[in-house]
Amino acid sequence: MTEQARALADRLIRNFNDAALEHHVRDPLYETLCARLAPGTAACKLGASIDTVAPGKRSCPYHFHYAQEEMFIVLEGHGTLRVAGETLPIRSGDVIFVPPGPDYPHQIVNTSDAPLKYLSIGTRETPELVEYPDSGKYAAIAVRDDATRLHVVQRSENSLDYWDAEP
User: Fold this and answer.
1) What is the 3-state secondary structure of the chain?
2) pTM for this predicted structure
3) pLDDT band at 1 (very low <50, low <70, confident <90, very high)
4) What are the pLDDT digits (tens) for 152-167?
5) Cα dist. 32→1, 46, 101 in Å?
6) Quick one: average pLDDT of 85-104?
7) What contacts 24+ positions apart, CB below 8 Å, involve 56-59?
């Protein structure tokens, strides 16, 4: 492979079998292995990860995005998609589309006794606001051109007055 071809491959191709795994656990409900695929690539507007949810666990808190659109492709196993107050069965081969907005809060739950593995693809909109209906939290996320990241999690009842601490 030429040097140019190698450079292109480094910017454009990721093999999820080779990606570094992050283990996220918050007992008693959450446990997932996550391999983020887009960092270091040429992708500007798309993010992707492979997530493997442990049996009986959830991948993340119930939430919805104000800007980001997501797609999930179930690769192995089965479980449920908690969405808009309903519980829908999901299984290997299912492709799930979740648009932004309060009509589609969502969460993937592994209700089986085997791992549930899925590909997660989402737009990386910035700024982004994420709401967590179960806990009453909001996350504000913004990334500047220089990759500086702002990520704040707050509850609306802790919100400050617009003029707080201003002269």
Assistant:
1) CCHHHHHHHHHHCCCCCCCCCEEEEECCCEEEEEEECCCCCCCCCEEEEEEEECCCCECCCCEEECCCCEEEEEEECEEEEEECCEEEEEECCCEEEECCCCCCCEEEECCCCCCEEEEEEEECCCCEEEEECCCCEEEEEEECCCCCEEEEEEEHHHCCCCCCCCC
2) 0.91
3) confident
4) 999 988 888 889 999 9
5) 36, 21, 25
6) 98
7) 56/110, 56/111, 56/113, 57/29, 57/30, 57/31, 57/32, 57/109, 57/110, 58/29, 58/30, 58/107, 58/108, 58/109, 58/110, 59/30, 59/32, 59/107, 59/108, 59/109, 59/110
* Amino acid, single-letter form, for residue 60: C
Contact partners, residue 28, CB within 8 Å, separation at least 6: none
Among 47, 45, 52, 25, smallest CA distance to 36 is for 47
Domains of the chain by start residue, with CATH: 3-125 (2.60.120.10)
The values of phi and psi at residue 61, to 5°, are: -65, 155
